[in-house]
Amino acid sequence: MVGFDPERTVPLPHYVYGACGASAAFISRFFTQPIDVCKIRFQLQIEPIKRGEVASKYQGLNQAVRLIVKEEGAGALWKGLLAAQSLSLVYGLVQFASFEKLNKALWTLNLTDNPKNPLFYFLCGSLSGVAATVAAHPLDVVRTRFVSQGRQKVYESIFQSFGMISRQEGFRGFYRGIVPAVIQIVPYNGASFAFYSKFQEIFRSYSGKKSSESGKTKIVCQIFFLLVLSFMHGILPWGLQMQWKV
Fold this sequence. Notes:
Order of helices and strands: HHHHHHHH
Largest sheet: none
Number of strands: 0
Structural class: mainly alpha
Shape: globular
Distance between the termini: 46 Å
Number of helices: 8
């Protein structure tokens, strides 16, 4: 279960939480990559995304999927998958491992009697989100640029793209959009973990069982938590990441 629990009889190492988070992100990324590809194409399109709009290349999700497959092949829906999977692995690993580490460290400072306090979770979630965002942002930039490519390709592989960005833009090129990304992730990630804790508390109160006794409570809260975490990235960071030199 996410979060430090002083009543847990067999504490797990922090790397176990990180490995579980990375594995979950890896699997979910594969199935959601086509949607992510369409999302980035929508964000980069200036024309309105509206059915029947002649000037718009992409007019809706179904139409966009059909058009991408027609013009670029079915494999284009998984364009940038290697970079995306690397991003998911790094982000999930750092986020959950650092959250557990922070959660336990702050609790040992006796700042609260309840390590599952929503405000406590908000703080740990915000800090772990910042750590994960900074660690994974270079892969995020590469992934975005891969996905945005049409028939004419600038980037051929993840290694070639790293080299090209490094030569043409320097180290700063890998952190385009990092400021809005961090500003966004602080309230978002903090709120996600805080609401997770709060819903645990509500379900425990409703079921009349402690956290360690209620398996259904854990399942329901974690499903809700993962659904919320699936909506992670905003438009502004993508737009800034896409400002590269050709």
